[in-house]
Specification:
Layout lengths: L1 H48 L4 H14 L3 H17 L3 H15 L4 H21 L5 H15 L2 H16 L3 H15 L5 H19 L3 H17 L3 H15 L5 H4 L5 H7 L10
Helix pairs in contact: 1-2, 2-3, 3-4, 4-5, 5-6, 6-7, 7-8, 7-9, 8-9, 9-10, 9-11, 10-13, 11-13
Length: about 280
């Protein structure tokens, strides 16, 4: 009897230690899962209460969804926060928020991750370019790679054209190489209007990089004529005109690069299909 009691005592003295090793991590996981669930519930409740004005609570929603490990809405609300910051001219904040959104997007399922990352990178690239930061090249390179993985030729071509500008700050030759690559890829663009816009933008960037070349100006005029013939929307015309104005304001006789009389710029102001006259 005594020997049995002694054996039981030995087993019982060992059991708490073994149990503790197993139970403590399990208890932590349970507590973490419960906290995540509470954050998700709180986020859902906030969405219900502030449905008509979600912009006002977008930061809180992004926080609670992130703490709840619900990555899709967390990324969506972070992008919303960044968009609002951009509208208020808070570029540094918008950039930081988008970079955080990009980090969270890596946790999305593979099937939707790339598309979300591409959207974030496009927004980030716009901010870096607006702030004239050389790191725009890195962002656009990553954007181009991910667009290529998805077979998104239009996005890939836009990334290359946008990349030409910051590259020209340090190497006009590298800028021209990227422009030529965009032109080669544009052959795969299915939309004739997109191909025409790509040719026009590439020619403007090429003129900015290597100076006046008659053949570049001629091809740019032809591309703009195609844009007008195919019927561009006002927004597209504004985007293209931005490139032309950038070249015009670049100094060194850039108005002459646009054709002296401003024919190239005028071509972007008009639309054959009743588009609004651009200022």
């Amino acid at each position: 009897m005594c020997s049995m009691s002694s054996a039981c005592a030995k087993r019982s003295s060992r059991t708490p230690l073994v149990s503790r090793c197993r139970v403590i991590p399990s208890a932590r996981k349970i507590r973490a899962a419960r906290r995540a669930m509470l954050h998700r519930r709180k986020a859902s409740r906030i969405e219900e209460l502030f449905a008509p004005s979600l912009d006002e609570v977008a930061p809180e929603l992004a926080y609670h969804f992130e703490q709840g490990a619900d990555w899709r809405p967390a990324v969506q609300y972070l992008r919303r926060v960044a968009e609002m910051a951009g509208r208020h001219g808070e570029r540094e904040r918008a950039k930081a928020v988008l970079e955080h959104a990009l980090a969270l997007a890596a946790r999305l399922p593979p099937g939707e991750r790339l598309v979300v990352e591409i959207g974030i990178l496009e927004a980030l690239a716009g901010i870096y370019l607006a702030m004239l930061e050389a790191l725009a090249v890195d962002i656009l390179t990553l954007l181009r790679e991910k667009a290529a993985q998805q077979g998104l030729i239009d996005v890939e071509v836009r990334a290359l054209i946008d990349m030409a500008y910051p590259l020209s700050w340090s190497s006009s030759q590298r800028s021209i190489e990227v422009i030529d690559e965009a032109l080669r890829l544009s052959d795969g663009q299915r939309d004739p209007l997109m191909r025409a816009r790509t040719r026009a933008r590439c020619m403007v960037r090429r003129i900015m990089a290597r100076g006046w070349q008659l053949e570049d100006a001629h091809e740019c005029r032809e591309a703009l004529a195609d844009v007008r013939r195919l019927g561009t929307a006002d927004r597209e015309a504004l985007d293209l005109r931005g490139d032309l104005l950038g070249a015009e304001g670049g100094g060194g006789g850039c108005r002459h690069l646009l054709g002296g009389s401003g024919c190239l710029l005028e071509g972007c102001r008009k639309s054959d299909h009743g588009g609004a006259q651009l200022p």
